[in-house]
Amino acid sequence: MKIVLKSETVRIASTLAAFFMALPLGLKGLTGIFVWTSPFIMLNSIIILKSFVVLNLLGTAVLLVVIFKNRFFCRYMCPAGFCCDKISGISRTKVSIHKKMPAVGSWLALISLAAAFAGIPLLILLDPLAIFHGTFSILSGDLSFVTILSLSGFPLLLAVNYIFPDIWCSRICPLGGLQDLLTDIRRRTSRLIRRKPQESDPYSPARRFFLASGLGLISGFVLPKLISPSRSQYIRPPASVEPATFNTLCIRCGNCIKSCPTNIITNHTDYSDLTSWMTPEINFGDGYCLETCNLCSSVCPTGSITHFSPDAKKIIFMGSAVVNYKECLLAHNKECDRCMAACKYNAVKIVPASRLLLMTPEIDQKKCVGCGACAVICPTSAINMIPPLAV
Amino acid sequence: MKRRDFITRTAIAGGALTLGLSCKRKIESSEPVEKNSTAALPYSGGKTITEPERKIPVFAETDVLVIGGGPAGAAAAIAASRAGAETYLVERYNHLGGLWTGGLVLPLLSTHAVDKNNRRKQVIFGIGGEMSDRLKKLGMSIFEINPVIDPEAGKYVLDEMIMESGVKMIYHTWASNVIMDGKTIRGVILENKSGRMAILAKVVIDCTGDGDIFNLAGENYDMMNYHIGLVHRLGNIDHIKPGIITDPKPDLGGETPIRGVNWVNMHGDNDQNGTDIITLSKLQMKYRKEIWESVQKIKSTPGYEDVFLLDTASQLGVRMSRILDGEYRLTLEDSMTYKNFKDVIGISGAWTTMMYKGKAVKAENRPLWQIPYRSLLPKKTENLLAAGRCFCFEKELVEDTRIIGTCLVTGHGAGAAAALAVKENKRVRDIDTGRLKELLVSQGAWLG
Ligand SMILES: Cc1cc2nc3c(=O)[nH]c(=O)nc-3n(C[C@H](O)[C@H](O)[C@H](O)COP(=O)(O)OP(=O)(O)OC[C@H]3O[C@@H](n4cnc5c(N)ncnc54)[C@H](O)[C@@H]3O)c2cc1C
Ligand code: SF4
Ligand code: SF4
After folding, report:
1. A216 near A121, Cβ under 8 Å?
2. In terms of CA atoms, which chain B residue is nearest residue A368?
3. Contacts with B426 (C-beta within 8 Å, 6 or more apart), sequence order
4. How many CB pairs under 8 A join A and B?
5. Residue of B24, B227, B352 to mutate when probing chain A, most A C-beta within 10 A
6. Do B88 and B66 touch, CB atoms closer than 8 A?
7. What would you measure as the largest C-alpha separation in chain B, in angstroms?
8. Cα(A72)–Cα(A320) distance, rounded to whole angstroms?
9. Nearest ligand atom owner, CA of B174
10. Given ligand 1 and candidates B404, B406, B408, B410, which is best to mutate, with the most ligand atoms within 8 Å of its CB?
11. Can you spell out the DSSP letters for A267-333?
């Protein structure tokens, strides 16, 4: 009884912690840090990017613990699991068909990781922390019906659990499945070492491993070829990985959106390219990408936004500024130098225009990183921001 | 290779050592930071001569001496004289108003800003406001917000106000040196057709725009090289034949209160030193030539034959040069946060977009801002004040501080303060700012 109480307390604490950090509270580097504890996301990310950052240690630590303590994450840490449990507990429905459904969680986990080796983290979006965190980015993005709908994964999860109690954690969750899988492998390995006979079961790990990873690998190779490379080009956060990887690796947790001090990151919605649906897109509004800031890159738990140090900003080209001279005040001999004054990279020069007496802003595309400062300060909106020009 | 590819590849190369713990993915900088360079003065040799010592006639002894008759200087002299101080105003050219009139920079900007209740309202009152009102009464000012005036009317009105207030006006006279007594300024040496002369004063106000006086007095300053232009006016705009479409349409600048007359601003070359005489001479001729050619081009456009060059400005458009290192440096943050100063001498407005904390704030949304007396006070010299585009502020704020509206406000504040110092027989830094505020309000200034 004592232990149960304790675990309940820990669960409430974890859920509250995750909840607060999932809110856009200006927590800087702590924004959504809970997502980093998911070993499922961590594995997908490091397999795809073949690289590791310090915060991945969080996921790694959890990974090591769950090998020895099965479902440790579910039992103590998972905010989504906690809420699903509670909802299932109060559910009055006596539906139980799903109880006959096989548990697919570990299959999903395996398929996703195998596909990741082939280049696409197939089912990373099903991570419960991704679903949980994504919903709270509704509070910071600019609201529209489609964004709210698209980010309603967590309420949906709860609704499904209300109708089919316990369906998520025990049957579907790939993060739960991953933990089962790891424990299973550990048990069988130790039995093997102790030369105990293996029990026969139709889903023996070897068989399962073979099937699922085969499926994963194949889809990893085939799917990217089926999904046409992103047609729409748009401005992504600084140091984003290339579009195709970004679209599949990004878990839409909204950490970047919530952490941005100038609120320039929004959710991309483009019906013609659904693979990029809800990925972060830069929409400058009245703010620009600060020369001193690297928050989005440090809170991105998947590495879709590559971690960078602020002093590297001058070599991180997120977009390009283009002047529409007809609109520029200088084309009409009016007092202005705002774009030149705003550019922190000395990319804007005001130079003689082709017509006598007139000057024009000129943008050095080798220096322009696309921070948007000139575009947002321009009193006549004469500067447009476009995806990076190849120089 | 596309630039994004480059980044991703460097990033991945940086961390591609398989999945080991040590492989960090992080982009670090490697380029050196670009440095600004300052051009050396073009004078050769460094040769000098020694001027023989000589006696100089004292032209006058006065309470307040204002050097420079631009918007700031005119407002300062009128304020000081109205407050009861004997005041001399020295101007090198033949008119008051400085760049506003002689420089043909006709729009009085920054007259409005947003107050704490989010209402955009007029903020420039006091002597500057009175100038603007008089011009409006004459029908020589157009537009309610940021009015554009007629320069000749401006010169006329300023002369009128100077005479009414009893200021002793000395035109055609250059201030060429200061008379120092330790750290105290005792007067200024002047040059004119009558020769070299001195005016001794209890308080001197530097309204030269370029900080000539505080520079001579040995104050520290920041040099700000900025773009220098030359404004001109076009006549017969109303003779342009209607209905003719040309591409590109000739640029005719903006309208003025006089029918058929437009003023044409000029951005001009960047990063120019407004106190370097070779620069000034070269730009003067270059710009005059360009203006001439541009007007010829307009005249050769069918339908535009009657347009003519009415005049080029008699003052070269030096926007910035020396910025005083004063007792308080006014910041962009002060101007964006309704910062309250106990020693406020005036309030100014906003005319363009400013970047603040990563966000652009448009003129229509920008707050009004207070100017403290301390930002007119030099650090070392006693009994010297600076007003106009050379008072003490941080460069981020320059687009607002150098503007005519602000110059009128700082001028008014300095003039009143000088008169008060004389009356109370105190150093300018010791005056009671509470009484200064009372005096300013009694002279029609608005302090919020
Ligand atoms: C091209 C251009 C466009 C601008 N556009 C605008 C605009 O649209 N709206 C706006 O509000 N502002 C504008 N400004 C800024 C504004 O016009 C000036 O900053 C403002 O007039 C400065 O006022 P001031 O009194 O400080 O100096 P000034 O106007 O420069 O007056 C200084 C006076 O001191 C005299 N003087 C200088 N040195 C000496 C000396 N040693 N001895 C005797 N007399 C001396 C000068 O002859 C001059 O009359 C513009 C400026 C330029 C150059
Ligand atoms: S977007 Fe504009 S301000 Fe930013 S680096 Fe490019 S030119 Fe400079
Ligand atoms: S800020 Fe806009 S209007 Fe001003 S100079 Fe630059 S492009 Fe032209």
Report:
1. no
2. B3
3. B420
4. 160
5. B352
6. yes
7. 87
8. 47
9. 1
10. B404
11. E---TT-GGGTT-EEE--TTB---TT--HHHHH-TTSSB--B-GGGGGG----EEEE-GGG-GGGGT
Q: Which residues pair with A282 in a beta bridge?
A: A265
Q: What is the pTM of this model?
A: 0.88
Q: Which residues of A touch B8 (CB under 8 A)?
A: 241-242, 306
List b or e across B100-127, with b for residues whose CB sees 16 or more CB atoms inside 10 angstroms.
bbbbbbbbbbbbbbbeeeeebeebbbbb
Strands B58-67 and B195-206: parallel
- Ligand nearest A361 Cα, by number? 3
CA atoms A253, A259, A263, A264: torsion sign = negative
Compute the residue count for chain A.
Answer: 391
**Pairing of β B221-223 and β B322-324:** antiparallel
d(CA A266, CA A257): 6
DSSP letter, residue A246? H
- Beta bridge partners of residue A321, listed in sequence order: A385
Judge whether A334 and A357 are in contact, CB under 8 Å. Answer: no
Q: What is the dihedral of CA B412, B413, B416, B419, to 10 degrees?
A: -110
Between the alpha carbon of residue A172 and those of residues A127, A180, B169, B362, the distances in Å are 10, 12, 91, 51
Residue among A309, A333, A377 whose CB faces B251 most closely: A333
> Which tokens sit at B260?
């058929």
Q: Which amino acid is at A159?
A: A
Nearest to A136 by CA among A128, A146, A118, A148: A148
A 10 A CB-CB count for B201 gives: 28
Domains parsed from chain A with CATH numbers: 7-226 (no CATH), 319-391 (3.30.70.20)
Tokens for B45?
A: 């040799």
pLDDT tens sequence for chain A (391 residues): 455 557 889 999 999 999 999 998 888 889 999 999 999 999 999 999 999 999 999 999 999 999 999 899 999 999 999 999 998 888 877 777 777 788 888 889 989 888 888 888 888 899 999 999 999 888 876 778 888 888 888 999 999 989 888 889 988 999 999 999 898 888 888 888 887 666 655 556 667 777 777 888 887 777 776 665 555 689 999 999 998 889 989 999 999 999 999 999 999 988 887 888 899 999 999 999 999 999 999 999 999 999 999 999 999 999 999 999 999 999 999 999 999 999 999 999 999 998 889 999 999 999 999 999 999 999 999 999 999 987 6
Q: Is the CB of A382 under 6 A from ligand 3?
A: yes
For the CA atoms of A244, A247, A249, A254, what is the dihedral angle to 10 degrees? 150
Q: Which of A287, A358, A379 sits opposite B362 (nearest CB)?
A: A379
Nearest to B133 by CA among B165, B157, B164, B105: B157
For the beta carbon of residue A323, count every other beta carbon within 10 angstroms. Answer: 21
CA A16, A17, A18 angle in degrees (round to 5)? 90
Helix (H) or strand (E) holding B347: strand B344-348
Distance CA B55, CA A185 (A): 105
ipTM above 0.90, yes or no: no
Where is A131: in which H helix or E strand?
Answer: helix A128-136
